[in-house]
Design a protein that fits this description.
The protein is α+β, with helices and mostly antiparallel strands. It contains nine helices and 14 strands.
């Protein structure tokens, strides 16, 4: 998108609303050949195994049925057919690092955001490409980095909740930081009464305040979305505190009372998390990640073959 703005309806008020309210913007990324079905199939064909997750969906809020799988040797076209006929979502992680074209595109997005909002000052950013089945869902969860979602094809309904109790608590964010699992956040149906709800069409992007819980329901089409994450200095400092407090709470049995992001106590926690985050207790905590439980069924698009777990 050389010499073109990514966002076509930018308004100066968005700078004042950023990180305070959800914002829906119009973008032109959906028009790029980069996101055509043939281009996506070719991308899947060569995507590194360590950088993708293919997830089979269960019933809503039944996290035991949120299972991770493998392509099982299928081609990119066959993987897309499986997604179209099944109940899966595929996350092509770190896509900006895996494919230079997406890295250049992401740089253009953040160059424009930083130009429009000089106080934003992003430190790092990354992206993943989500390809998901009709009626698939992403359950209620929260993320530690800043987040935005660009809708590229298909239609989905997104619910964004306030970034405050009872929708999300500091203790839950500490657990996310410590365990590396963003889905273990309690959800109640009445939360929806307080959600901002967006029916997203291709060419729309939603940004939501840092740590705001959210969930997604695909409508009746295959969906392709670009999910973007980023850190700023305030976000980075909050992440350090959540991880340090998570270590204190879950590893050392100490209930943290401060979540300050400056001062002597903050710097002590910064040293603590840097010292302990790679020790064997932390590695054991990260082993809570999902095992590979199935592979896509070559003979039945949309089906899955269960694997025997060791």
């Amino acid at each position: 998108m050389q010499n073109e703005n990514v966002f076509s309806n930018w308004n100066s008020r968005y700078e004042r609303l950023w990180d305070r309210q959800p914002i829906c913007l119009e973008h032109g990324l959906n028009k790029l050949e980069l996101f055509s079905p043939d281009s996506l199939a070719e991308l899947i064909d060569r995507y590194p195994r360590e950088h993708y997750s293919i997830i089979a969906m269960g019933e809503r809020d039944n996290k035991r049925r949120w299972r991770e799988g493998d392509f099982g040797g299928l081609s990119g076209q066959q993987v897309l057919a499986a997604i179209a006929n099944g109940r899966f979502w595929l996350n092509l992680r770190c896509i900006d690092r895996v494919d230079r074209r997406f890295g250049e595109l992401l740089s253009a997005v953040f160059r424009e955001l930083n130009d429009r909002m000089p106080d934003l000052k992003t430190l790092h950013y990354g992206a993943g490409l989500l390809i998901s089945s009709p009626k698939a869902e992403v359950y209620y969860h929260a993320d530690l980095p800043g987040q935005a979602l660009f809708q590229l094809s298909g239609r989905k309904r997104m619910y964004v909740y306030p970034a405050s109790p009872p929708f999300i608590t500091a203790e839950q964010l500490e657990g996310i930081a410590f365990h590396g699992l963003e889905l273990d956040v309690a959800y109640q149906p009445w939360f929806d009464d307080y959600a901002r709800i967006y029916d997203l069409e291709p060419g729309q992007m939603v940004y939501w305040p840092n740590n705001a819980p959210h969930r997604v329901e695909n409508l009746d089409t295959v969906n392709v979305s670009l999910t973007v994450n980023f850190t700023t200095k305030p976000i980075y400092r909050r992440q350090l505190v959540y991880l340090a407090n998570g270590i204190l709470r879950h590893q050392l049995g100490w209930t943290p009372r401060s979540r300050a992001t400056s001062g002597l106590l903050f710097w002590s926690k910064a040293v603590l998390q840097k010292t302990l985050r790679n020790n064997r207790w932390m590695r054991k905590a990260q082993e809570l990640r999902r095992p590979i439980e199935f592979k896509l069924d070559r003979s039945a698009p949309g089906g899955a073959v269960d694997l025997k777990l060791a």
